[in-house]
Amino acid sequence: MSHIAAFDAAFATCPLIAILRGVKPDEVEDVGEALVEAGFTLIEVPMNSPDPLDSVTRLARRFAGRAIIGAGTVLREDQVAAVAAAGGTMIISPNANLRVIAASAAAGLVSLPGIATPSEAFAALEAGATALKLFPAEAASPAVVKAIRAVLPKEARLLPVGGIAPDTMGPWSAAGAAGFGLGSALYKPGMSAAEVGANARAFIQALAA
């Protein structure tokens, strides 16, 4: 199965990306286990976390076949190769750097760039993006999602990221959001695996509702 097909299957199971900004390698497997047990299938370690590639490697090894692992805040082409070498298959960025998107696509990796406008969205898709991250969602609204979705190809997936909580997902989903990236409402540095698991279950329950 290709990395894209594996992502598509995981996304269909649970379209929520767990963003573990600030996680440390010595705790990442316990946090990952709590997420996977709750039903999460997509896990991101931002590159501005401590030793992020070590965490990516640990997660990729531990959860092979159970979850798709990737890195966030990927800003340069050389980082794409480094994430792939560490075992990551998702390349997530806060911006729409067309070179990073193209490098990810050329390597057969999942590309999730950040976009804020239709122009960025179409350029990212043309460069090979797998799905689009609406970032920061705090600066947008469900009405913005609805307007962008009206012009995007039907199969294009748009995921609001930033400030999403279990009780705020409904309006975004109704407007056409395909999924979400979840940050501090799911994981903050210092949280125990048990706390992350409880937060994860709250998101899963809200998604089902």
Q: Characterize the largest beta sheet: strand count, sense, and whether it forms a barrel.
A: 6 strands, parallel
The total of helices stands at: 9
- The beta-strand count equals 9
* Radius of gyration from the alpha-carbon trace, in angstroms: 15 Å
Distance between the termini: 31 Å
Beta percentage is 5-15%
SSE ordering: HEHEHEHEHEEHEHEHEH
Query: Helicity range of the residues?
Result: 40-55%
What is the average of the pLDDT values?
98
Flag low-confidence runs: none
State the secondary-structure class. alpha/beta
Shape: globular
Adjacency order of strands in the biggest sheet: 5-4-3-2-1-9
Structure characterization notes:
The chain is built from 9 helices and 9 strands. It has 209 residues and is α/β, with parallel strands linked by helices. It has a 6-stranded parallel sheet. Strands 6-7-8 form a 3-stranded parallel sheet, with helices on one face. The model has no long low-confidence stretch (mean pLDDT 98).
